[in-house]
Amino acid sequence: MSRSITLQSVEELGGQSSVLARQRRDHEELDRLMHRYESGGLPSAERQQTLKDIFQLTFSHAFAEETVLWPALRRLAPDGEELTSQVEEEHQQINELAIEIQCTDPDDPRHEQLTAAAFALIRQDIRDEEDVLLPRLQQALGYDAARLRRLGTTWETVRRTSPTRPHPAVSRRPPGNALAGIPLSVHDRIRDALRPAPPGTSSARPIAAVLTTTVLTAGLGFVLLRNRRSRAR
Ligand SMILES: [Fe+2]
Ligand SMILES: [Fe+2]
User: What pLDDT, in 10s, does the model give residues 182-208?
Assistant: First the structure.
């Protein structure tokens, strides 16, 4: 009987660099940011920046799941198709809500309603993954720490080079998401880099970020190509 990864020690998860420990750390960070947004008392600009940070982490995290983890679960587990379809649907709904939120003025009451709906879905997604999908993946990988760490490295590489904004029109599955992901990632990360720098930071930040994006995206292309080749063998 598989146990929720919420209840397991880091050692049981396969160590700090295992995909399960990495997933849990991101989920905890999302939870912290959502509570910060909901806590009240934040200045409006800081609150909206927190919302952007939540979506940025959500979309890069979810893209790497859709590209690396859920295809692995479908290959390894007989019920993988059914399990992954459900979380892909949650990801799709979060993408659609984020687009609506972006198009709504923060002073409009609908903005808060849509944000609350998006947070509820993010929390549901985290529960589904920590209680069902990730324990199932752990079981399918034979509780093998080395395999969990290798998958963690691949997932992290893709996460760091993934799109950071909502793209509801893009397929939630490979190869469609992987092919669209490379140009979208460059586009999103350039837009992120060109956001006004906080007071007191260097104006070289956008240039450095764009250069980093180009190098990292080349890395994403390499990882995706390697994964496709190894699956073809
Ligand atoms: Fe996750
Ligand atoms: Fe997810």
Answer: 778 777 877 777 666 555 545 445 555
Q: Where are the domains of the chain?
A: 13-232
137: phi > 0 → left, psi -120 to 50 → alpha, else beta; which? Answer: alpha
Q: What is the C-alpha separation between 63 and 84, in angstroms, rounded?
A: 13
Classify the phi-psi angles of 12: left when phi > 0, otherwise alpha if psi is within -120 to 50, otherwise beta: alpha
Q: Distance from CA of residue 17 to its chain's centroid?
A: 16
Can you say whether the dihedral through the CA atoms of 21, 25, 30, 31 is positive or negative?
positive
- How many Å lie between the centroid of ligand 1 and the Cα of residue 74? 16
C-alpha–C-alpha distance, residues 151 and 69, integer Å: 8
Contact 17, 146 (CB under 8 A): no
Please count the residues of the chain. 233
The residue behind tokens 């700090």 is: 16
CA of 120 to the centre of ligand 2 (A): 13
Q: How far is the CA of 216 from the centre of ligand 1 (A)?
A: 21
Contacts of 46 (CB under 8 A, 6+ apart): none
- Please state, in angstroms and as integers, the Cα–Cα distance from residue 1 to each residue in 15, 66, 113, 132, 213, following that order: 21, 25, 38, 11, 42
Confidence of residue 150 (pLDDT cuts 50, 70, 90): very high
How many other C-beta atoms are found inside a 10 Å radius of the C-beta of residue 159? 21
